[in-house]
Amino acid sequence: MTDxxxxxxxxxxxxxxxxxxEGDFAGAAKLKQDFxxxxxxxxxxxxxxxxxxxxxxxSVNDVYQGKPHTYFAVATAEKLQSTxxxxxxxxxxxxxPGVADKSSFFDTLAGIAFGQxxxxxxxxxxxxxxxxxxxxxxxxxxxxxxIWIPVVTK
Length: 154
Description:
The radius of gyration is 15 Å and the shape is globular. It has 3 helices and 9 strands. Helix content is 24%, strand content 44%.
């Protein structure tokens, strides 16, 4: 079983570029890779990272206008053109740490969280809302970070 904690987080906000997700997990992973390549090539990712106040790359999953979306995001107070601001409420979050290669980090932690950890937690429930994963790159090329999933007491 993967280690996790339940932590109270203060409200926070992330700002990012995103897109609507369709299809299964493998299809969504391919869409994420393609979108990341697009925002890397056109300079939006670099501009986003320069505005970061914590130095982390974030991935956010949320429902926007009734459709699942994913975002590459940062913590920033700056207003960036054509981005979405995603507000996270104060409350309890399942926090799962992990280490993985950079290209699969976000999907690896999401798979562990939703496939292994959340199904085993009996006194808390995920009832939707945005979830976020942060990562930082290590000298060896791997990344470490955490996924934060909002939960409520059952």
